[in-house]
Structures are given as structure tokens and as C-alpha cells.
Write a structure and sequence with these properties.
- The complex is a heterodimer of chains A (172) and B (768).
- Chain A contains three helices and nine strands.
- By secondary structure, chain A is of the alpha+beta class.
- Chain A has one domain: START domain (Alpha-D-Glucose-1,6-Bisphosphate, Chain A, domain 4).
- In chain A, a hairpin with a 2-residue loop joins strand 8 (148-150) and strand 9.
- Chain A is globular.
- With 768 residues, chain B is an alpha/beta fold.
- Chain B folds into three domains: 93-193 and 414-619, Rossmann fold, CATH 3.40.50; 196-408, 3-Layer(aba) Sandwich (Dimethylsulfoxide Reductase, domain 2), CATH 3.40.228; 647-767, Barwin-like endoglucanases.
- Helices cover 36% and strands 17% of the residues of chain B.
- Chain B contains 33 helices and 33 strands.
- In chain B, strands 6-5-18-17-16-7 form a six-stranded mixed β-sheet.
- In chain B, strand 19 (524-525) and strand 20 form a beta hairpin.
- Classes of the chains: A alpha+beta (172), B alpha/beta (768).
């Protein structure tokens, strides 16, 4: 396991930064290594990354998500496996400190590449800068998802538990 | 292309050992061989290379989901899908000459395979009262006959409209709209026969009738159960998902009375390791369960899990989830702790050790998916069985998380979508109110007939008019003798069809064959070329666009036929723009967008690559059960009483068969060649019943009425099915399934649970 930790300060309020972070499908617009993100369901996303000739797809489960606070993920693929936490905290001047803590399992061929974890750390740092430039440039989030996830499962408040936006009759 | 067979092929049974793996190179060879017999190399290429592609034809063969756009193979189909689509794309044609040559009674004596192999229907045909021949009729007059019949009914409830899973969302929506505007909810469908029990049980316990998993969930599950299903023959593309899951480290437990080849090993013909290598082992454990023993199995596993929790409190069950999101746990737990091992072992035919090994697999797995098909749904206690599977999933929080969930595997491509569009005899008031608001008429509220009740009503002379939107009603339904007599009591039967089948030969006083465009064909209407939309088993709604020139210039689309019938039957009361529907299917979708929840902005969203992923409420933390929580249930069932000297028969399909249509008499995975009139019996039962290998027997079913149901002249084949059980092909043995032998709650016929005795064949005895 290799650990990475990167923090960046962003000149927008926590709510704005958090809301923008939940718009995973927008990541390819400003991140250079993220080519495609598919939100399969609230707690399951599929990511296609590319760097030079290398290309890879993985699925990530969102294990915990708390609006304006944090998000914890883990990859469902083992090659290489990774997990991490994105935290959002307010800075004294009303901005956001965004911290990514990440652990990458480098068993297999990836682990043999010298300096691979340093490279991964630089990639994460660069992509966070891209995120900062994007949301600061917009000044306002392009969308928001305000759900709460605990133990990999979307939590609903009591009043929402029987509300369904889909056909609710039995399907044979 | 080969010419259509003139005579029925000779029956010459040979039996070889069952295969231990599915697909591989032989699957490709058989698919191409059949395709090239039916049509040209060019048409084969067109159909196969556009099948299940983003802008191509949705394979009508099954409802399995496609990988995301950009991740599909160039050849995204299976052997059976290839056969099925080229069965439709065949260059064989039948028209007036064929029907002059063959009377209706001649055709009624032909096999399902022979009827199918004659080719595509090309012009509307009518059989008039008293006549034994179909003759050509213009579309105008054919629709006129139906209008005349419909407008002379004493009540609209004397009409029945049946839908098969071939129908698109748009056709299904138009059909239910027409039926309700006419004044009836008589909308039976093929779901009544295949997964009605799943829909009932899931809706009751989870608040949704649909499966909760995506392909990604299967790929990343730790443990997958395949219960009562045969993916190698009935949904072969599922094998690719299972192979991916295995590659990611999943374990698979198969539970089935027969050790089907596709449950054991898969050789993926798209991968080098599948072509020249040993392939992928699918099932890590195979439980050869008795027919209908699944409820007892899952109750026993649930009891074992509760006991494991007793031994290690807080480590086995997901108490956080159970407390926050479910109700009924305590009552369920008390009930299932009382399940007796003797009963479990008798019902399942398994050993306690085998069931304890299942528990151990479960305890090692964080993410579990349960897949099932008709091996579960077609029993008297099918609904309790599926409810018990939900209990099993709830215990360890295996719903609503990545890599977990319930996966009823549906067979026909749009069977799920047709129901979403309102093809159901009991639609809720919310849907009917939306129809009223949108179209300005008051839909009938009294529930209509499902498939079994439609047959009962026909038998009692309460139905005068029957229209089948695709399908083969008389062969898909149980109690064939009763059903055929019932259908013959109708004044008019009409079928919207692409090919000939037995439902055209067992008909009312007046009968109509209404030849329709298939999925493979270009559909050009007044505003230009159209596409249709369908929903797969994983709730993805996407387009299907045909590429081939239609088999005849006289074919109409399903939608055109229904719109013309509706316009002429109803006039402008209510004022519905049937003409505009026919000219532009987008207009229909605009109405659907305003009526069916989740279809907002339908036209724009469905045109995107991959289409629309309908939300599954369970994955959104929503349980529309009334309490807002998932429901634990207490389930019990009386096992079918199988008297001494009898067996519990299940009907099943062969590998070379699609629904009611056998392509040949071969079933190569099970080693059956040259004949379908076989009954598969455990070798110990063959001996125990005093039978011999290859003996000719009649199958006689046992039911509480005094009617003798006898399927004549079958050959006994010793086969490794579970003790006390037997298997024979559907639809030849449907006549053994009593109409009143149905699943509790869902009214689904019990095709997998028929008590039979095997008697020396009368025919064989006469010949001897």
C-alpha cells in the first residue's frame, strides 16, 4: 500500500466546492487523465482514465458520503486496488480546503515501476489544481447531488422513504 | 439459403453424454450454420454486426443488458440470439399459394418447428366461418372485420388483448391505450407466464417489481447464486458477465435440478482462452436440488445465518440496515428458526453438509447477488420462495449496495418494458388517472383478465374477440387441450405475427393473420424512418432500429396495425391522434413521457448512446412498500405430494429452441439428438420405477379433477436430474399442466411442478 495526501485551497465556499465535486460526469471537462465517468447508481461509478498510451477502466464504490463534509471511496477492481477520502473544510476566509487521502495497492506489475507512487501523487496534485481552476472560474457549481451514503447505501430521511419516481407496479 | 422443409423430419433419437461446458467454437459454428440456412451471407452480416450495437437492432431473443456504449464487442450476441434474429431475417416467404395448398386442419397437425420453418408471412389472410382455408384479404377489410366484431360486443370485456415481449414500448403503450379507451383492462401478457411471481414477491417486499442489479454489480459481487436457471441456453450473454465476475474473484453457487452445461463451464468464443483454452469454470458449487426445493434451501440457509449470529453476535447480520431499513425481522426470525431439518432435507434432496457449505460461502462474502429464472417462478409456492430469497438478501444487507441485489433474469426482450407501459390487467389508479388527464376519457377501473383467467373466460364463452400482439398464445399457455378448446370458442381471433405458429391454426370462427414488420426491418412511416424503444432486464431503455428491407411491401408495423384498428373502432371518441401516432412514433413517446414516471423528456434522453437508465428505488434508498421499509416475511409452503410411483415433472426448453419455437429436434448440451419426445429421469428412478433406458412411455399428470392429461409416446432417457424429478420439453408437455395449477398470489402456471406417472406407451403397445 502506498499513501498519498494532497490538500488544495479553493476560493469558493465549501458548499460550492462540494456540490461541484459530486458532478463526476463533468470531471473529463477539466481533468486531463479522466476520460469518462459513468454514474451507474448513487453509490457506484465507473471511471475511464488515460495517460499517454495507457488506458484503464475501474469501478468505484462510494462507501460514505456526507454533504459539505466528505466522501469515502474504494475501487472494486483489484488491479490496482485503491481507496481514499475526499474532505471539505472551511478556511478562515470562507474558502475550502480540499484534502485527498488515498491508498493504492501496488501489487502486480505496477508495483515494480520505480517511483510509481510519487508519479501518482503528482497526478492527483495536478488534477486537484484543475478542479480548483474549474470551480473558481465558474464561480458557481454546475449541479449538485445532496444525498447521504452510509455503508455503501443511500440513506433517506423518513419523509422520502416512500417516494418513487419510477413505475411502482409489479413487473412480471 | 435452404428451401423450407416439405415434410416433417423423421424422429430418430440418439443420446450422448451431457456436455460439461457451453458456447466455444461450436456455438459460433451452429449460429452461422443456421443463419446461412435461413438467409444469405450478406443479410446474416447485416443483422449480426448491428445486433445490440448502440444504433442497431435490439436482439429480440432475450432481455439481458448490453455493456455500456464503447465497451461492446463487435459481435455482441450469442448463438441463440444469432439464430433467433436470422430466423426472422429468413429469405423464405409464405403467401396465398401456401395457404391454398395447406388447409387449417393440415397446419394444425404440423409441428411447431415445421410451421416456423416455412418462412415469413407476407400478406394479411382471413379464415372465414365454416372454411378450412386461409385466403388473402386487404388490410382495409381485415381491420374492418375486427372493427365489426369489436363494435358488436355486448361489453368491451368480451375482448382480450394479449401482448408478447416482442412488442416495443410504443406498440405496448398504444395497445393498452386502445383497450382502455374501448373500455376493458383485459391485457394478459407473457409476463403472466414467466416472471409474474418475481414481480409480485419483489414488489411486496422491496417496493419494486424489477431487479435491482446492473452488469457492474454482477462483475463485482463476491458470491453469485444462479437458482433455477439455465444461462447456457436461455441467456448465454449472462455467461460473459459471470466470466468477468469470476475473473474478479467471485464464487458462484448454482442451484438446479439438472447440471446444465452453462452452469458448469463457459468457453467464451470472443476470447483466445475460450477458443483454444479450457474456458472458465462457472459454478464453484453445484446443488442438485429437487424441483421446488428452493424455499426450503433458503429457509435453511437463513436459519444457519441466524445461528451463526447467535454464536458471534454482531458479526453476521447487518443490524444497522435491518434496524433502519426493514420491518418484520423478529417475526421472520422466530418463524425460520422453527424450520425442521428433516423437512428441509426431504424438500431439497440435499445433505445438511451441502447447505452448511453454502452458509460458509455466504459468511465469507461481503457482496452477494441472487439470479433466478423460471425454475423458481413456476411453482405453487413461487412467491414465498422469492420472498425468502429477499429475506436472505436483507439479513446481510445485500440490497442497495454495489455488487449486491436481486436479479430476476427475464427471457423475452421487452417483457419488462411492456409492463412499464401499462400492459397489466390491474394497473393502479395513479396510472389510470394520468391516462384520463392526458387523453380525456375515463379508463375502466375493474381489473381485467390475466393469461390464465383469459383462458377460463374463453372456456366459459365470455370472450368473443382475441387479439395477440406477437407471441404464440396457445403454445405458451398451460393445459393445451383445454386452452385450444377455449380459444376455438371465440368468434374472432387475430394475431399480429411475423411467422406462422400454432395459434394461427387453433382459432375462432373467423381468424386473421396480420403480418407485421420484425425488429430487423426498416420501418418507414409518413414522417420518415422510425425507431422503437425497449427496456431490458436491468431497466435500461434504449432504441432499436431495423436495417433490412421488409420481407414484403404489404407488412405493416405493430403500431400501424393497432392505430388503424383503434381509429376505426373508436372514431374520435375519445379524441386521440391515432394518425399522428402511426406517422411519428415520437408523438407516442411524448405522451409516455407525461404518463409513465421516469420517462420525462423521453425522446431526447433515449436518443443518447445507451439510452436511459431507469432509477431503481431500492438503490436510491427508497422502499415503496407502504411502510417505507423493506419487508421480512414469514413463508411456508406445502411441498407437492408426490405419491409412490410418481415423479415431479418440470417442463424446459432445449438448447436449440426459442420460447415456443424449436429450431431442430436437437439439444446438444444435454446430449439429446433427433427427437424432442423424451423424458429425462434420474437413473435410480428409472430402475426404481421398473423402467428401462429408451422405453416408450406416456406421461400422465395427476390433478384434483378427473380429467386425464396424457402426453403420449415419450422415450425414457436416464439423466442426472435430482431424485424423484423428471424433465421434458415445453411446449410439447404443456398439456400436462392443469389450468388451475397456478402459483399462489401471482396466478402463474406451475410449469415446473407437475406430478406425473409414467405408463407404458399406448402407441408403442399398439405397434408391438
Amino acid at each position: 500500500m502506498h499513501s498519498i495526501e494532497q490538500t488544495i485551497e479553493i476560493a469558493v465556499p465549501v458548499r460550492t466546492a462540494y456540490n461541484q465535486w459530486t458532478q463526476f460526469q463533468h470531471f473529463p471537462r477539466f481533468m486531463t487523465t479522466v476520460r469518462e465517468v459513468d454514474q451507474i447508481k448513487p453509490s457506484l461509478t465507473s471511471w475511464t482514465l488515460a495517460a499517454g498510451p495507457l488506458r484503464g477502466t475501474f469501478q468505484a464504490e462510494i462507501v460514505e458520503q456526507e454533504p459539505d463534509s466528505h466522501l469515502v471511496w474504494r475501487s472494486l477492481d483489484e488491479r490496482p486496488g485503491h481507496r481514499g477520502r475526499v474532505s471539505f473544510t472551511s478556511t478562515p476566509d470562507g474558502g475550502t480546503a480540499l484534502t485527498v487521502r488515498m491508498e493504492i495497492g501496488l501489487n502486480g506489475p505496477a508495483g515494480l515501476v520505480p517511483g510509481v507512487s510519487q508519479v501518482a501523487g503528482r497526478v492527483v496534485a495536478a488534477e486537484l489544481r484543475h478542479f480548483k481552476e474549474y470551480i473558481e472560474g465558474l464561480g458557481q457549481e454546475s449541479g449538485a447531488w445532496r444525498g447521504t451514503i452510509r455503508g455503501g447505501r443511500l440513506r433517506r430521511v423518513e419523509s422520502e422513504r416512500n417516494v418513487s419516481g419510477v413505475p411502482c407496479w409489479p413487473h412480471g | 439459403m435452404k428451401k423450407a422443409p416439405g415434410d416433417e423430419p423423421d424422429e430418430d433419437l440418439t443420446v450422448t453424454p451431457p456436455k460439461k461446458w457451453a458456447a466455444g467454437v461450436p456455438a459460433v459454428a451452429h449460429a452461422l450454420e443456421y443463419s446461412l440456412e435461413e438467409t444469405s451471407a450478406r443479410r446474416t452480416g447485416t443483422t449480426l454486426l448491428t445486433m445490440n450495437q448502440v444504433d442497431g437492432i435490439d436482439c429480440p431473443g432475450c432481455a439481458w443488458a448490453d455493456p455500456a456504449p464503447g465497451h461492446r464487442h463487435r459481435n455482441e450476441y450469442c448463438e441463440n440470439g444469432a439464430k433467433h434474429i436470422n430466423d426472422e431475417a429468413t429469405t423464405r416467404r409464405i403467401g396465398a399459394d401456401f395457404f391454398r395448398e395447406h388447409s387449417v386442419s393440415d397446419l394444425a397437425g404440423r409441428s411447431d418447428a415445421w410451421l416456423n420453418q416455412q418462412g415469413r408471412l407476407t400478406e394479411p389472410m382471413v379464415k372465414r366461418p365454416g372454411s378450412d382455408h386461409y385466403e388473402p384479404i386487404s388490410w382495409n377489410d381485415a381491420i374492418g372485420l375486427m372493427v365489426e366484431e369489436l363494435t358488436s360486443l355486448d361489453t368491451p370485456d368480451e375482448a382480450v388483448f394479449y401482448t408478447s415481449g416482442r412488442a416495443s414500448n410504443e406498440a405496448a403503450f398504444v395497445l393498452q391505450l386502445f383497450a382502455r379507451a374501448l373500455g376493458t383492462n383485459n391485457l394478459p401478457d407473457c409476463s403472466n407466464l414467466c416472471h409474474e411471481s418475481s414481480g409480485y414477491a419483489l414488489h411486496e417486499t422491496l417496493g419494486t417489481g424489477k431487479g435491482t442489479v446492473s452488469l457492474h454489480d454482477l462483475h463485482h459481487a463476491d458470491l453469485i447464486f444462479l437458482v433455477g436457471q439455465n444461462p447456457g441456453s436461455n441467456h448465454p450473454r449472462q455467461l460473459s458477465a459471470l466470466e468477468e465476475a469470476k475473473r474478479n474473484g467471485a464464487r458462484i453457487i448454482a442451484v438446479n435440478p439438472l447440471p446444465e452445461a452453462g452452469l458448469l463451464r463457459f468457453k467464451n468464443p470472443q476470447k483466445p482462452r475460450g477458443v483454444i483454452g479450457p474456458g472458465t469454470q462457472i459454478a464453484d458449487r453445484f446443488l442438485r436440488i429437487r424441483n421446488g426445493g428452493d424455499l426450503a434451501l433458503f429457509q435453511a440457509v437463513n436459519r444457519l445465518l441466524l445461528e451463526a449470529e447467535d454464536a458471534r453476535p454482531g458479526e453476521v447480520l447487518d443490524h444497522g440496515f435491518i434496524d433502519a431499513d426493514t420491518t418484520g425481522f423478529e417475526e421472520f426470525a422466530r418463524h425460520v428458526r422453527g424450520v425442521e431439518w428433516d423437512d428441509v432435507l426431504a424438500a431439497t434432496g440435499l445433505t445438511r453438509e451441502e447447505i452448511e457449505q453454502v452458509r460458509d460461502e455466504v459468511l465469507r462474502s461481503e457482496r452477494v447477488v441472487v439470479c433466478w429464472a423460471m425454475g423458481l417462478t413456476q411453482h405453487k409456492h413461487a412467491v414465498p420462495t422469492i420472498r425468502e430469497i429477499v429475506n436472505f438478501l436483507l439479513l446481510r444487507g445485500n440490497v442497495g449496495r454495489a455488487g449486491t441485489g436481486a436479479c430476476p433474469v427475464r427471457g423475452h426482450s421487452n417483457v419488462q418494458g411492456d409492463r412499464t407501459m401499462g400492459i397489466w390487467e390491474q394497473m393502479p389508479d395513479s396510472f389510470l388517472d394520468s391516462l384520463k388527464e392526458e387523453f380525456g376519457f375515463d379508463p375502466p377501473r375493474a381489473h381485467g383478465y390475466d393469461s390464465v383467467n383469459a383462458i377460463r373466460a374463453m372456456r366459459e364463452g365470455k370472450v368473443k374477440f382475441f387479439l395477440g400482439l406477437a407471441g404464440n398464445f396457445v403454445r405458451a399457455t398451460p393445459d393445451s387441450t383445454v386452452t385450444e378448446e377455449a380459444v376455438r370458442r371465440c368468434r374472432l381471433t387475430a394475431h399480429i405475427s411475423t411467422k406462422l405458429n400454432r395459434s394461427h391454426t387453433v382459432c375462432g370462427d373467423t381468424a386473421l393473420i396480420l403480418p407485421a414488420l420484425g425488429r430487423t426491418e426498416r420501418d418507414v412511416q409518413a414522417t420518415g424512418e422510425q425507431f422503437v424503444t425497449v427496456e431490458n432486464s436491468m431497466s435500461e431503455v434504449h432504441t432499436s432500429r431495423g436495417r433490412l428491407r421488409p420481407a414484403s411491401s404489404l407488412l405493416l408495423s405493430d403500431i400501424a396495425i393497432l392505430c388503424r384498428l383503434a381509429r376505426r373502432t373508436l372514431g374520435d371518441k375519445p379524441d386521440i391522434a391515432w394518425d399522428r401516432f402511426e406517422a411519428d412514433y415520437g408523438v407516442i413517446r411524448d405522451h409516455i413521457a407525461r404518463i409513465v414516471p421516469g420517462f420525462e423528456d423521453y425522446n431526447r434522453r433515449v436518443a443518447r448512446p445507451g439510452g436511459i437508465q431507469l432509477m431503481n428505488p431500492v438503490n436510491e434508498g427508497v422502499y415503496s412498500t407502504g411502510t417505507g421499509r423493506a419487508l421480512f416475511t414469514r413463508n411456508s409452503a406445502e411441498a407437492p405430494r408426490v405419491p409412490e410411483g410418481h415423479l415431479l415433472l418440470q417442463t424446459l426448453r432445449s438448447h436449440d429452441q426459442w420460447n415456443t419455437v424449436p429450431y431442430t429436434s436437437n439439444d446438444r448440451y444435454r446430449g439429446i439428438h433427433g427427437s424432442r419426445r423424451v423424458v429425462l429421469v434420474n437413473p435410480d428412478d428409472v430402475r426404481g420405477l421398473g423402467l428401462s433406458d429408451g422405453q416408450r412411455v406416456d406421461l400422465v399428470s395427476v390433478w384434483s379433477d378427473d380429467v386425464e392429461r396424457r402426453a403420449e409416446d415419450f422415450r425414457v432417457v436416464p439423466y442426472p436430474t435430482a431424485r424423484g424429478c423428471a424433465a421434458a420439453y415445453y411446449p410439447e408437455t404443456n398439456l400436462l399442466v392443469p389450468l388451475d395449477s397456478v402459483a399462489d398470489h401471482s396466478n402463474q402456471p406451475t410449469f415446473k411442478s407437475i406430478v406425473v406417472r409414467l405408463e407404458p406407451a399406448r402407441v408403442g403397445a399398439a405397434q408391438a
